[in-house]
Amino acid sequence: MFKVNNDWESALKHLQLSLIDTSPSTFSKLEIKFHIAHLYEVQGKYKAAKDNYEQLLKDKELPTHLKADICRQLGWMYHCVETLGEKSSRENLAIHCLQRSIEADPKSGQSLYLLGRCYASVGKVHDAFIAYRNSVEKSEGNADTWCSIGVLYQQQNQPMDALQAYICAVQLDKSHSAAWTNLGILYESCNQPRDAYACYVNATRGGDSANNNVPSVSTSVSPRATQVGMNPNLSQRIKFLQKL
Length: 244
Fold this sequence. Notes:
Elements lengths: L7 H13 L8 H14 L3 H12 L6 H17 L6 H18 L4 H13 L3 H14 L4 H13 L3 H14 L4 H13 L3 H13 L26 H11 L2
GO biological process, one term: regulation of gene expression
Family: Belongs to the UTX family.
InterPro entries: Corepressor-Demethylase, TPR-like_helical_dom_sf, TPR_rpt
């Protein structure tokens, strides 16, 4: 409960106490250690999180589902956290960890999606497409995956395929700001200003949710806006298109 309410210190204190408590518990000791490592991660204490995750992976009694979760968290940290090393080295480690996660849990659509993101970031487009497609097969209702597929298609100059992918994303999540923004950029590039305008307006209504980390086609328009005033670039595009 403390963890859910972002009371990190209280959560850590109680989790550490539960490790030495001998009474029956809902979670195993290994699961408690995983939650402690994850607490360090969400607090931005990445070195401590990495050390705890890696220590857990050395445990011979680690259950498969926990190994999959740990490798996924560790892999995505390597991808995102610059302080964990040089970029090319981090990307290789990220891909390796995510592959281990998928080996432990082949049905994990989330790990496959994150693997696709890592492949895309290093220019392995074909591998990224395969990972995304496999992710869709495992978890069809993932708007982030469809948005990322759209970005890849758009970067490969396949606008119709990109269009279909973005539409899938916004059908699954009508508040997906990144997908609406990228769809608007696509419509503008195809000289469809009215459709672009509608998409940008929808993007400003999107919530500040997990899709903030989804890739965007253009760095000039951020997918993070929750309202027009919070995103000057998006606001400018809307004002410009209103005049047409």
